[in-house]
Amino acid sequence: MSVLAGRRHRPEPAPIGARKTHFTQSELRTRRRAGLPVTYDGTFDLTAEVDAIVTPLATRITSLTRTHNAERGLPKMFQHLVADLVDALHGEMIAGIVAWIAERTARERIDKVGGHLDSASRAAALRHVADLHPRPPAPEIAPEHFASGQWAATLIDLVRPYSAPLADLLHRAKPPNDPTLRGAVSRSERLCDLLREVDSAARQVEIRIDRAEQSRPSRTLTPTDRAAQARAELQKLGIEVDAE
After folding, report:
1. pLDDT tens digit string along 200-218?
2. I want to staple 40 with a disulfide (CB 3.0 to 4.6 A). Which of 115, 154, 188, 218 is the partner?
3. What is the pLDDT of residue 141?
4. What ranges do the domains of the chain cover?
5. What is the dihedral of CA 21, 48, 40, 9, to 10 degrees?
C-alpha cells in the first residue's frame, strides 16, 4: 500500500475542553492502531516503537516453539508473515525515513556548494546527492532466529541508527494542520502512514500466533512462562513492564 503524499480528509478536531494535550508513546500507538489522529514530534523514539511492536511477537513465538517442541515446523508457519513484516519495516518505513534524511542532507550540502546553480540544476543536484545516500540492506531472518527470538533484535538494530535523525526531522517539521502546510500532509502524518503499514503486517503475525496458541497442547506453565506471557499481553495493551 502506498503512503499518502498529497492532501487528505482529516477528522474534525475535538472540542478544546475534550482534548488531551499530551500522550505517551504507548498511548499514541494505541490511538494510531485505532485509526485516531496522532501527532509525532521530536520526542518520538523509533527504536522503542519497533521494540514495542516486534518483541511481544518474538516472545510469543519463542514460547510456542518451546511448548510445541517443534522447532522445524514453527519457523515455516511464521516465515512468510514475518517476511511481510520485514518488508513493511525495511522496504516501506525505513526506505521512507532514509529518503527524508537523504533529502535533508542533500539540501544542506547543496546550500553550501551550489550557490552558482540555477533552479533546474539545483533540483538535479539535490536528486543526485540524495541518491548517493546509503540505504541499509534488507535483514536476513534465519529459521533458527524464530526459536531464539533473535529476529526481533535484528529488526530493532536495523532501525536504531535512524532514531535520532528522525526525531530531529520531526522536531523541525510543521505539525498536522499547520496553516503554512496549505493542506499538504505533514511529516508526522506521513510517518503515521508508514507505521500503520508495519502495524498491519504485525497484526497478521499476531493473528497466526493466536491460532497456533489455541491449537497447542495444554501444559502447566512455569512461573517464567506466565511472566513472559503477562508482559507480552500488557505490551499489546500499550503498558510497559520492566522484566525483573
Report:
1. 999 999 999 999 888 765 5
2. 188
3. 87
4. 25-216
5. -110
